[in-house]
Amino acid sequence: MLKLFEHDKLDVNNLKPEQIAIEVKQLNLHFGQKQVLEDVNMAIPKNQVTALIGQSGCGKSSLISCFNRMNDLLHDCEVSGQVIISGQDIYHRKQNVATLRTQVGMVFQKPNPFPMSVFDNVSYGLKLQGVNERRKLDDAVEQALRETGLWTEVRDRLFESALTLSGGQQQRMVIARALALKPEILLLDEPTSALDPLATLHIEELLNQLKAQHTVIIVTHNMQQAARVSDYTAFIHQGKVIEYSDSDSLFTMPKQKRTESYITGRYG
Amino acid sequence: MDKWKFNLAQKQSMITSATAAVAAFLVLVLVALSFFIFIRGGNFFWPQNIHTIVYKRQDETLQTHFVRLDAKTMRVDEELLHFRYSSPEQLFDGQLTLNESNIISSEAAPSVAVVALKNGGSVIAKVTSITDFQGKRVGIEQFAKVTEQIDEYLQTINFVRQGELADIHRGLAAMDKRGVDEDAPARVKLAKRYYQLQDVIENVERKLDGYVLSVEFADNTSYPLFMQNVSEFYYPNEMNVGEKFLFALSAFGSFISDAPKLNNTSGGVFPALFGTIVMVLLMTILVTPFGVLAAVYLYEYAPQNKTTALIRISVNNLAGVPSIVYGVFGLGFFVFVVGESIDNILFGDDLNSTTFGAPGIFWASLTMAILTLPVVIVATEEGLRRVPQSLRDGSYALGATQAETIFKMILPIASPGIMTGVILAIARGAGEVAPLMLVGAVKFAPALPVDTEFPFVHLQRQFMHLGVLIYDGAFHSQNIGNGSSFIFACCLLLLLIVLSLNLIAIFIRNRLRKQYAQN
């Protein structure tokens, strides 16, 4: 397909500091005795969609969980190395984890709407931040829902239970819930694996619009999806980043043999 | 023995029938219990027909009485009938137990009335006439007017006693303290006024004593009742079923709004009803936060290791401790240790009577809260366990701390589970008697725990409780009589209270369930 307005691809292994959203240095992750990530070094570019691919259990979900420290909730989890966001190592002992998670939003595999109204769902994070003014909440909820294209669908049922929405709507609402906090980075952990094709299409279109405002990192099993939505892709195998480059080159001319085997479906 | 071989379908249906039979038996027991309590309790309110019976005494002489049937009981081969009657010797609550064979005749007595007295007793007799204080006969149709007149007199006496007479007493008391001669003229003046007022009262009382309601018993002996002791009279035989039903309803109304009379065998149960409800509500207010916070710690914060498991097992075991043990603990710890320490700190040596160091409603509620704590903890933990991990993750991912996640997300979702615990706690707390008798429930309490006197809620006061009233009644009147139907009426009320408290809690739970339904 001819891409008319394609801009130049950056060289992800040689980014300028102002182009970097997340810089991972020598990251090692252990669950008890088991090493899940080994010497991960990568820089994720700002305002781009980066996909992480690899087979099940390769550590890609664990890697994005490191970016907002959701790993902290699992016991036996040990992290060494650095993850630098906005010039700060988020594993520094002075880092406030709650604040970090407002800056780095996360969306999970299965839609997890809270059993409350749509409005309460989307304003949940803001209320935690102490925003109680009704006008501000109204505006933020509307803006977040507009960003995800959900506003026209749910404007009349803002105060109905979020559980009455369809699966795809729920997932978009969950994304809106994260966007309401205006995070710099949005992490998506297989966001479409529980959805039907049409809902998946909605979300993929959404990702493209989101990168204007946010850095998007998406974990996916689906290589077509990675090729469609992402600007850059990292292939992870057994806890190591095997290959990391712009998606076009990775999917068309993989440099590593293992990458090629994986994307051509020889294993995984 | 091919007869005893069954195919699969037959076995299946036998198992189904067996389980259904057990369930049916359970339903039967429940219905029987409710029915029995309802009939025996309802008997207390229902105006029974009056009969004139002639019966043979053991010395073969014949005796006749106006009677009301209380109950029938079986003894080996004969039926015993328990009646209530009135006579000059046994004015009210006369009890009569007869073999059916001793009764010579029994017929309805339409013109016989039941005269209800203000002290709670009632007299079964013919009402013949009313005499006023001048000895003039007044028709019994003037009853309402005479009652009004008597109420006026009683009010006058009360007004004088509470008003001017009380002032004089206070004045005299103040002078007595000083005890100086210069007070003498004032003292004499007050004393004179005192005797004047006393004369007024005596005058009115003499008039009151003059009003007499004459009644006549079955053997044609006449008996005078002081009108000021009579509250009303009615003819049960002349009422139809509808009228009897209305009468029973109004009797139930006064049962739940009046104070007990005649040593808790008659009258109403308002103080006990009130005490029971206040105690249960206070208990609920105490146990819910305690139980919920403990469960939150055990499930959400505590490391899941052996110590936590041990604590959890201990909590479950606490539910099986006999309730009287909690009563002794409440008395020994809350009343004697905590209460007396509070007394010492607040009042020190100025204390002339124990305030918190004595059994009272707060200690009773606290004891019951400890008793029902395991139920709330177990139910809350179960509720917390049902909140899926994905919702917790969702909350954390939006920048919530653990405390925020627990209080804004998990507890609201777990609230139906918490309500289940509260329902069980209420059911247990409202029915418990043994521990209460040690820590504050009494047969008779002079004042309610909540009233219009500052500070309105008197947590140190002793209180009356329906269960204790039943227990007390069961011990001091074991024969069949008014007392026992009073007990059944109390049982009926206790059942109704537990039922309605439960219904309220279930209603709240269902609303919460709807609000926080997960799919």
TrEMBL record, chain A:
Q: A Gene Ontology MF term for this entry?
A: ATP hydrolysis activity
Q: Which InterPro entries match?
A: AAA+_ATPase (IPR003593), ABC_transporter-like_ATP-bd (IPR003439), ABC_transporter-like_CS (IPR017871), P-loop_NTPase (IPR027417), PstB-like (IPR005670)
Q: Which PROSITE patterns match?
A: ABC_TRANSPORTER_1 (PS00211), ABC_TRANSPORTER_2 (PS50893)
Single Gene Ontology BP annotation: phosphate ion transmembrane transport
The terms describing its cellular component in GO are: membrane
Keywords in UniProt for this one? ATP-binding, Cell inner membrane, Cell membrane, Hydrolase, Membrane, Nucleotide-binding, Phosphate transport, Translocase, Transport
| UniProt keyword ATP-binding present | yes
| Protein's recorded name | Phosphate transport system ATP-binding protein
Which source organism? Aliiglaciecola lipolytica E3
Q: Which gene encodes it?
A: pstB
UniProtKB/TrEMBL annotation, chain B:
TM regions (residue ranges): 20-39, 272-299, 320-342, 362-384, 405-427, 486-508
Report domain ABC transmembrane type-1 positions: 273-505
User: A single GO CC term, please?
Assistant: plasma membrane
- Could you tell me the superkingdom of the organism this chain comes from? Bacteria
Pfam families (alphabetical)? BPD_transp_1 (PF00528)
**UniProtKB keywords:** Cell membrane, Membrane, Transmembrane, Transmembrane helix, Transport
Q: What is this protein called?
A: Phosphate transport system permease protein PstA
Organism of origin:
Aliiglaciecola lipolytica E3
